[in-house]
Amino acid sequence: xxxxxxxxxxxxxxxxxxxxxxxxxxxxxxxxxxxxxxxxxxxxxxxxxxxxxxxxxxxxxxxxxxxxxxxxxxxxxxxxxxxxxxxxxxxxxxxxxxxxxxxxxxxxxxxxxxxxxxxxxxxxxxxxxxxxxxxxxxxxxxxxxxxxxxxxxxxxxxxxxxxxxxxxxxxxxxxxxxxxxxxxxxxxxxxxxxxxxxxxxxxxxxxxxxxxxxxxxxxxxxxxxxxxxxxxxxxxxxxxxxxxxxxxxxxxxxxxxxxxxxxxxxxxxxxxxxxxxxxxxxxxxxxxxxxxxxxxxxxxxxxxxxxxxxxxxxxxxxxxxxxxxxxxxxxxxxxxxxxxxxxxxxxxxxxxxxxxxxxxxxxxxxxxxxx
Length: 371
Ligand SMILES: NC(=O)c1ccc[n+]([C@@H]2O[C@H](COP(=O)([O-])OP(=O)(O)OC[C@H]3O[C@@H](n4cnc5c(N)ncnc54)[C@H](O)[C@@H]3O)[C@@H](O)[C@H]2O)c1
Hints:
By secondary structure, the chain is an alpha/beta fold. It contains nine helices and 15 strands. It folds into three domains: about 5-80, no CATH class; about 85-230 and about 345-370, NAD(P)-binding Rossmann-like Domain (Rossmann fold), CATH 3.40.50.720; about 235-340, Dihydrodipicolinate Reductase, domain 2.
């Protein structure tokens, strides 16, 4: 769960989670807070007009998005406000440097292998403005991210307070973007938090389940906050997937192999799953049984999806990110392979997505929709 800013609850009367009664459009605040939302005043109704007035006030007082589902029987509204103590402000926000023509960007996982590349790419882009570098690495807290990455001072201090930064950036900027390259265990909460604050998420972290993706797509649509979940930012991977879909028409047998460095937590990779989903969208059942198989070592044949496609995951130091799709037919095989040698391969796709996500309606899954 995303930590609350400043390590305290929202004050009563400012931080409230509730439901909308669509009949009379009252916001009804529950008597007690949920596990991840602060306690609000018991059953305090707020009229739609009142809610709109609150949201039209000075944004510093009402920084959080109001999420209203007018289509459902009872939808959630979360309206909250809080001031960030000056001492908690990140260095760059003492005086915001973003201009109308630049996109404010928060990088989450800024000290990781991918996050560090993103910080460099954003810092080098004239139309992007790095406003926050969030990472949980204890030793780096408070240090300048640019200095840590050898870029020279960027006046952006590393902080682990994601929600505080989302809160602040939502008060100070419109159209801010959060880029997340962290860990599968936290990416869902990060994405939901960004959407709730009206900050556009660009998610590179893999490992979101189909249910989580559905939920995030629903949430971003209801909140009217464009979002992008991109399991692979490489243009070459998109081309491999398109070639695989074209080949799938001609082959009934296919196996997918993904190879990554041994620091990767999830398996199979989100990209490999995406390739499998694209092959399945062709509408075929793959790998019809020709012999009764017997595994003497569990897992030797990889993981099999309901479509019959088998996925294999290799983890070795020395690898970066690689994928093969191998088709088999009578007397032949056809192999498609993509190799990422260096993480800089992902940056054109990351920058493209940052620049487009603000104009998206709802959530987009996959770089191919942005090319
Ligand atoms: N979409 C793509 O094109 C693509 C490409 C490469 C990697 N990835 C994915 O990106 C993710 C990160 O990969 P990596 O190689 O950079 O990992 P990494 O371990 O090098 O970096 C992760 C960083 O996130 C930080 N972190 C962890 N939990 C955090 C939290 N709760 N809040 C803030 N920071 C936190 C860590 O301290 C670390 O610095 C993985 O899921 C990986 O599969 C995606």
